[in-house]
Amino acid sequence: MGQVDDGAGGERSARRDQAVRAAVEQGLLGPDAPLAGLLDVTGIRESAAGLRAAFDAVTTPGTPVLHAFAVKAAPLVPVLRLLHEEGIGAEVASPGELALARAAGVPAERTVLDSPAKTPAELRQALALGIAVNADNPQELERIDALMAPAAPVAREPVP
């Protein structure tokens, strides 16, 4: 029976089927290797382009928009690098996720720290690097304000 192409979904199905066949033929997937992770790189690129186009259609030209992918959803440097190349930033919730995003080349200005339990050290690091921080509550805003406040000058007497 022939493949029915019902638009983008049909194209995705065809790419998936081709990838699975190739994985089986190359011995990457089979009785001795029953698990394989396959990514539709073309589909990822198309989705990123569609996301950017949708926002471009409804925002004033020049309006900064940061699309960010949750690193925990696919904590793999090659995936994060691909997303970065397609204009997608990184949403991180831990030092490990931040390390993965940085290893993938995602710059600080395209990274967001978003965790319900940010430590003072994580906040300090994010602020020092210029990473955007999603504050979850008023107490966290107070901690951020305190970290961002300039240090009070310390008076020292001259050493004789």
Features:
globular; 47% helix; 160 residues; 6 helices
Number of strands: 4
Class from helix and strand fractions: alpha/beta
Write down the Rg: 22 Å
Helicity, as a percent range: 40-55%
- First CA to last CA: what distance? 94 Å
Percent strand equals: 5-15%
Strand order of the largest sheet: 1-2-3-4
| Low confidence ranges | 1-6
Major sheet attributes: 4 strands, parallel
Along the chain, the helix and strand elements come as: HHEHEHEHEH
How many H/I helices? 6
Task: Provide structural commentary.
The chain is of the alpha/beta class and 160 residues long. The protein is built from six helices and four strands, in the order H-H-E-H-E-H-E-H-E-H. A four-stranded parallel β-sheet has the order 1-2-3-4, covered by helices on one side. Helix 4 links the parallel strand 2 (89-92) and strand 3. Helix 5 packs across helix 6 (138-148).
Q: How are the secondary structure elements laid out?
A:
Elements: H1 8-25, H2 41-58, E1 68-70, H3 77-85, E2 89-92, H4 95-103, E3 111-113, H5 120-129, E4 132-133, H6 138-148
Parallel strand pairs: 1-2, 2-3, 3-4
Helix pairs in contact: 5-6
